[in-house]
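#struct-pred
JK: can someone run the complex with fe (ii) ion? inputs below
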Amino acid sequence: MVPASAALAKESILTPRFYTTDFEAMAAMDLQPNGAELEAICEEFRKDYNRHHFVRDQSFEGAAEKLDPDTRKVFVEFLEQSCTSEFSGFLLYKELSRRIKNRNPLLAECFAHMARDEARHAGFLNKAMGDFGLQLDLGFLTATKAYTYFQPKFIFYATYLSEKIGYWRYIAIYRHLQQNPDSKIFPIFNFFENWCQDENRHGDFFDALMKAQPATVRGFQAKLWCRFFLLAVFATMYVRDVARKDFYEALGLDAREYDKYVIAKTNETSARVFPVVLNVDHPRFYERLERIVQHNHALDAADQANALLPLKVVTKLPHWLGNVWEMGRLFFTAPIASNQFQPAIR
Ligand SMILES: [Fe+2]
Ligand SMILES: [Fe+2]
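RT: done, C-alpha cells with the ligand placed:
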C-alpha cells in the first residue's frame, strides 16, 4: 500500500478544510423556535435508510484495472479529494456530538447520525482507493491537519452549502451516467443516488437549524455573510473543477457546463433559507470567474518557474491583485432577495 498522505499534505486554498468551532455556544443553543422540524429530521436520521446501501458488490472486481493511465490518475485524485471532504465532515460532526452530548441531546444526536453517514461515505471511498493500491491514512490526516476555527453561524453557512452542493454534484453525475452508461468509468457511481440523499438530509438539517436560530439568516450582516459564503463556495468549486476538467471529460461531462448547472441549482436551493442569493445569471458572473481561472493558471505557472523568490513575487502580484479585484466585483454585484427569487422549477 502506498500512503497518499504525502500528496495531500500539500495544502492550498482549494483543499478541503478541517473545522473546529465554539462548542460552548453550540451546547447553549435554543432549538425551540424550530424544535418540531428538527425533531422530525432527527427521526429521519434514526431510520438510517442507507444502513445496507454501501456494500461493495462484484462489479468492483477488476474495475480498477480497466481504466487507462490518464483516467486512472484523475479518478484517483477525485477519490482522494472526496474522501478527505467526507472525512472532514465526519470529524466535525463527531466532535460536535461528543462535546454537546449532555447539554443539548437533540442536536448531539443529529450530529452523531450525520457523523455515521460521513464515516460510511469516507470509508466507501477509501475502499475504492484500495482498488488502486492506495489508502488514505485517516489517522495521520486527523493528527496533522490544521483546523480552521469558525463561529457556529459560519459553520452553518459553510456546511449547509457544502452538503447542498454535494447533493447537486452527486445527483448531476448520477443522472448523467444513467443517460450515458458507457461513461460510467467505475461502479462507485452506482451508489450516488442514495448517497446524495444523505447529503440532502444533512443540508435540510442545517436549514432547520438556521431557522431555529433566526438571527443567523436575518438582518444586514447575515445578508453579507451569506453572499460571501455562496461566492467563496461557488468560485472555489469552479476554479478547482476547471483545473480538473480531464476528470469530467472522462465521464463525458464538460466541467464548465456541469459547474454552471450545480451552481444554479445550489443557489436556487439556498434561497429557501438564506435571505439573499447570488445573481448567477448576471452576464459578467462567469466572465469574472473565468478571469480568476486564468489568474490561477498564471500563478501556478509562476510557482513552477525556476526563478528567485523576489522575481516570483513580482510575477505573481498582478494575478493576486487581479483575483482580489474580480472577487470584489463579484461580491458587490447586486444579489437577489430570496423572497423575490423565482426559479423556473422549484
Ligand atoms: Fe457525505
Ligand atoms: Fe453530508
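RT: quick notes.
The longest helix spans residues 69-100.
Residues 74 and 244 are 8 Å apart (CA to CA).
JK: thanks, will look after standup
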